[in-house]
Amino acid sequence: MIFELSEEQLAVQEAAREFAQKDLLPGVIDRDRDMIYPTEQVRKMGELGFLGMMVDPKYGGGGMDTISYVLAMEEISKVDNSCSVIVSVNNSLVCWGLEKFGTEDQKQKYLTKLCTGEWIGAFCLSEPEAGSDATSQRTTAVDKGDHYILNGTKNWITNGSSSKVHLVIAQTDPEKGHKGINAFIVEAGWDGVKIGGKEDKLGIRSSDTHSIMYTDVKVPKENRIGEDGFGFKFAMKVLSGGRIGIAAQALGIAAGAYELSVKYSKEREAFGKPINRHQAIAFKLADMATEIEAARLLVYRSAWLKDEHMNFDLASSQAKLYASTVAMKTSVEAVQVHGGYGFVKEYHVERLMRDAKITQIYEGTSEIQKIVISRAITTGDLYVPTKTNKTVPA
Ligand code: CAA
Questions:
Q1: What predicted TM-score, i.e. pTM, was given to this entire model?
Q2: Which protein residues touch ligand 1 with a CB less than 6 Å away?
Q3: Which of 60, 121, 226, 358 is the one with CA 20 to 30 A from 97?
Q4: 73-118, pLDDT tens digit by residue?
Q5: Which atom of ligand 1 is nearest to the CA of 158?
Q6: Residue 367, C-beta contacts closer than 8 angstroms, at least 6 positions apart
């Protein structure tokens, strides 16, 4: 077992750290307060290759492994989680989904633009009445021969107004249940696509979260992803990968809050010595450091399983469940370490605490992760931690 990062991975980590500190940190408080979409920062992330990291270079992507992607997510998430959720959705839900399951024509037409950041993508599964219960899709796509007619409303869509391409999950044949669901590539500019108002959120406030309404939208048949009825499995498989990205975001939040706490506790004195010399604070830091390291191992391992083409469904749910718990706990404790200063915006930890909460909710709540994990461990289907089981489909 080797716990070392390669030189390439270390270089990606360093580049992401430098970018986050130089380009994201200045202005992050204002963008969060005023819900300003990070247009310039997203443009730069595209330029630096953070928006299509794992995509094959033949489509214009970075050709990197999932570990590198996770390292970049971690560094960006220490600073700006509105930016890191954009990175996560574009890389692991949209680009990966299209590269893995799309046709060559779809890749040429859409992936080439999405992986460079020229276009941004959105993943449209959740509905007003179908969040955790993802098979209960009310959005319909009626088969009209050479096209489908799409009607319905999607909720909580990250990149809702900035995206040019939506991957939309819809029910084509209700009698077939989840086997009658399809996934479609829909362009934001098509007739009948209407973007709802921007959500005013607790955290990740400068990312653009919207509802999207589809009214009689004509979707060409060539824009369906996979065989007829593949849409639900597409969504599940893509979300398994997405959960690695969100787990890395949670890890970054925890690590960012921890690093700020270590720095502050060295500088701040009380009762004649730095507060990190008081056991009350030192023990908090010890817990943070240990739990973050455990989360990091789970996150890196889930990325490694994906890179090794082993089944990562169980591992990504475990990583997301644990890392998001650690993000929440660590960021709350970081505010406590900072005392009154932790309660004001200038010191960053209150923002990380607000951002942490969403990692326990989106891309499957913690309760949904427990469903996935408990089913996997009771059936034994997905528990494949060794290379000898490499044949299990990824
Ligand atoms: N890979 C492939 N297939 C899978 C799968 C996976 N990981 N997980 C399930 N499936 C298949 C099952 O095998 C089954 O197929 P068969 O009938 O052919 O065997 C089918 O999908 C249905 O599975 P279940 O019976 O397990 O379905 P369920 O109704 O019990 O739901 C669930 C399972 C895990 C709860 C699922 O509904 C789920 O993950 N819900 C949460 C949805 C979610 O994560 N939403 C996030 C929104 S997106 C977002 O947040 C993005 C953003 O903007 C940040």
A1: 0.96
A2: 89, 123, 125-126, 132, 134-135, 157-158, 178, 232-233, 236-237, 239-240, 313, 362-364, 368, 371-372
A3: 358
A4: 999 999 999 999 999 999 999 999 999 999 999 999 999 999 999 9
A5: 53
A6: 132
